[in-house]
UniProtKB/TrEMBL annotation:
Superkingdom of the source species: Bacteria
Matching Pfam families: Sigma70_r2 (PF04542), Sigma70_r4_2 (PF08281)
Protein's UniProt keywords contain Isomerase: no
Family classification: Belongs to the sigma-70 factor family. ECF subfamily.
Naturally occurring in which organism (per UniProt): Algimonas arctica
The protein's name in its UniProt record: RNA polymerase sigma factor
Amino acid sequence: MTDPDHDLILGLRAGNEPALRALMDRRMRTVHRLAYRLLGDEFEAEDICQDTFLKFWRAAPEWREGEARILTWLCRVATNACYDRLRKSRPDLPGDMSEEPDRRDGADTTLVARQRWDALQAAMMNLPERQRAALSLRYDDALSQREAADIMGTSEKAYEALLVRGRKTLKAWMQESEHA
């Protein structure tokens, strides 16, 4: 079995970057096309190609001629990586379902939660800008008090006061909307 990429093996084993570039020039299109066909996503296919050539680059010093062609190895590694990604992104099928009962909320509970969320978002938009920013940094971005205070250009004590006022105002508005 002759490998059409045999001329690059010595350079690849030695860690010669031009040899890797030459291999990529020759074989990238094939590996990419394979990954794209399996995944149906251009960016995912590019990631697979990069990972595949990087794995080969790392494995090249131990490459044993005659066991497989380089292109065969590249395609096998790419195919396995695609299968792994497809398995990870596959939705649960009935055969994959756990034995635990479904604990999701019913439609009525979901509707109430959605209405509460919408009311909270509307109330947030009515807060003064700095209180809204303080709450957003704390709850949306999960920053520490020190980080958020630095971002807002204020002391930690002043930041805490903004949080307290914002929470208090939101709580009052939410209680009001529930009783309306």
